[in-house]
C-alpha cells in the first residue's frame, strides 16, 4: 500500500505538470503561465524547469529524505515538475510523464530503503549522527514570524515580536516543569516551540491586517483573473486525487511537507509536526493563492493543509477522504481569498516575506545542524570541512543553495570518514 501511494503521487503529479495544471515550484508557476499564453516554447519551459528544480532535488530534497528516512515532498514533486514539463504535452507525452513519474516515485522509495540498509555495512555508520542536521531547525523555527515582521514592517516590531515569542516559550517551559496544567490526574504538556510560534504568527497577522487597501488604488484580483480562477476550478477533480494521496501518504508517515515537520516526525513527535505544518500552511496561503490566481496554475499540494490533515487524522482512509475535501474547499474558496487579499494588502505581501524569512532561518539552522552532525561523524575535521565548504561555495557563486550546504556537507564528511577508515588514517570511535 505504501508503495502504491508513492507511485501514484509521482504519476499524478507528473501528469498535472505535463498538462500545465499544477507545479510544485512556486517560481515555475509564472513561467508555465508564460508558456500557456504562447510567449515561451515547450522546450524552453522544460529546460527552465530543469535549471530551477534539479539542484533543489539533489541538494535539498534528497539529503533531507536520506537523513530522516522519510520522503521530503520536495524530493518527489520537484522531480515530477521536471518530468512533466520536459515531456511533450500530447497523448503519448502525458502517458510517458505518468509512467516516468510513477517510476521516479518508486525509485525514490526503494532507493531510500536501500540507503538505510547500506549504512549498516559501512565502517562508519553516519546515519544516526545525520539526525543532528535537523535539531536546530526545530528550535529556531519559532523565530521566523519575528524575522518576517522585521522584513515587512520594521526591525523594532520584529524585535518586539521576537521578545514576546521568547517569553511565551519560557513561560510554557515553566508551566510544564511546574505541572500546572492537568486534566484529572493527567499532566498536560505544552509544546514550547509551538506556543512561541503561535504568538509570533498572531503578531505577524495583527500587523499585516492593520495595513488596509486604498480604495482608489485597490486592485480587484478576483475580477481581473476570473478566467484563471475558473481554469483552476475546472481541474478540481485532479487536485482532489493528489490531495487525497498526499494526505494518506503523510498519515502513513511516508512523507512530510517541510524540513521542520520532517525532523519532528523523525523524532517521533507527530503532534508537534502537525502544529509546525499548520503554522507553515497558514503562512503560505497568501503566496500560493496569489501565484495561483495570477497564473491559473495551482500547486499539487494546495495550501499544504493536506499535510496537517495527514498528521492529525487518526486513520489513513479518513485522511484520504478529508484530504480530498480540504483541497476541494481551497480551490472553491480561491475567489473569496482573492477578495480578502485585496482588502488586506499587508496579508498578501506577507506571503513572500514569510517565505524569505523561512529560507533565511533554514539557511542558518541547517548550517549549524550540518556542522554539528559532521563533527559527530569526524570530531574536529567535521567543523573544518563545513566551514571551508560553506565559504568556498560562497566564493564560487553558490552552485549549491545555502540551505543545502549543511546537509550536503555532513553527507560528504560521512563519505570521507569511511574512506579515511579504509585507508587506515582514521579510527572508528
From TrEMBL:
Q: In terms of domain of life, where is this protein from?
A: Bacteria
| The protein, known as | Transport system permease protein
**Which InterPro entries does the record match to this protein?**
Uncharacterised_YhfT
* Keywords associated with the record: Membrane, Transmembrane, Transmembrane helix
Q: Which Pfam families does the entry mention?
A: YhfT
Segments crossing the lipid bilayer: 49-80, 92-113, 133-151, 158-175, 187-208, 236-257, 277-298, 305-329, 364-392, 404-426
- Which organism's genome codes for this protein? Virgibacillus massiliensis
Amino acid at each position: 500500500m505504501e508503495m502504491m501511494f508513492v507511485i501514484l503521487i509521482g504519476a499524478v503529479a507528473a501528469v498535472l505538470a505535463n498538462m500545465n495544471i499544477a507545479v510544485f515550484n512556486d517560481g515555475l508557476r509564472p513561467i508555465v503561465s508564460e508558456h500557456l499564453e504562447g510567449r515561451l516554447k515547450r522546450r524552453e519551459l522544460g529546460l527552465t524547469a530543469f535549471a530551477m528544480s534539479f539542484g533543489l532535488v539533489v541538494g535539498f530534497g534528497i539529503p533531507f529524505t536520506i537523513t530522516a528516512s522519510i520522503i521530503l515532498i520536495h524530493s518527489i514533486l520537484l522531480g515530477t515538475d521536471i518530468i512533466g514539463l520536459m515531456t511533450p504535452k500530447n497523448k503519448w507525452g502525458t502517458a510517458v510523464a505518468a509512467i516516468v513519474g510513477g517510476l521516479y516515485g518508486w525509485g525514490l522509495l526503494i532507493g531510500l530503503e536501500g540507503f538505510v540498509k547500506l549504512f549498516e555495512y559501512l565502517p562508519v555508520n553516519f546515519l544516526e549522527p545525520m539526525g543532528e542536521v535537523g535539531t536546530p531547525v526545530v528550535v529556531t523555527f519559532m523565530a521566523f514570524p519575528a524575522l518576517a515582521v522585521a522584513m515587512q514592517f520594521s526591525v523594532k516590531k520584529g524585535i518586539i515580536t521576537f521578545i514576546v515569542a521568547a517569553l511565551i516559550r519560557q513561560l510554557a517551559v515553566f508551566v510544564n516543569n511546574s505541572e500546572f496544567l492537568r486534566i484529572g490526574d493527567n499532566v498536560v504538556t505544552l509544546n514550547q516551540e509551538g506556543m512561541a510560534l503561535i504568538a509570533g504568527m498572531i503578531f505577524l497577522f495583527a500587523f499585516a491586517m492593520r495595513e488596509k487597501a486604498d480604495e482608489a488604488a485597490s486592485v480587484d484580483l478576483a475580477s481581473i483573473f476570473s478566467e484563471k480562477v475558473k481554469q483552476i476550478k475546472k481541474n478540481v477533480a485532479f487536485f482532489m486525487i493528489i490531495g487525497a494521496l498526499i494526505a494518506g501518504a503523510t498519515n502513513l508517515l511516508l512523507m512530510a511537507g517541510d524540513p521542520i515537520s520532517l525532523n519532528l516526525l523523525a523524532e517521533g513527535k507527530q503532534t508537534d509536526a502537525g502544529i509546525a505544518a499548520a503554522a507553515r500552511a497558514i503562512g503560505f496561503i497568501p503566496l500560493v493563492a496569489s501565484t495561483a490566481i495570477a497564473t491559473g496554475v495551482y500547486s499539487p499540494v494546495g495550501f499544504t493543509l493536506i499535510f496537517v490533515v495527514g498528521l492529525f487524522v487518526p486513520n489513513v482512509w479518513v485522511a484520504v477522504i478529508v484530504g480530498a475535501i480540504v483541497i476541494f474547499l481551497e480551490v472553491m474558496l480561491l475567489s473569496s481569498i482573492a477578495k480578502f487579499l485585496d482588502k488586506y494588502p499587508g496579508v498578501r505581501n506577507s506571503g513572500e516575506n514569510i517565505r524569505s524569512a523561512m529560507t533565511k532561518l533554514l539557511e542558518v539552522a541547517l548550517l549549524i545542524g550540518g556542522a554539528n552532525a559532521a563533527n559527530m561523524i569526524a570530531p574536529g575535521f567535521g567543523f573544518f570541512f563545513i566551514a571551508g565548504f560553506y565559504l568556498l561555495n560562497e566564493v564560487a557563486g553558490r552552485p549549491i543553495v545555502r540551505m543545502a550546504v549543511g546537509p550536503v556537507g555532513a553527507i560528504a564528511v560521512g563519505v570521507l570518514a569511511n574512506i579515511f577508515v579504509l585507508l587506515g588514517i582514521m579510527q572508528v570511535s
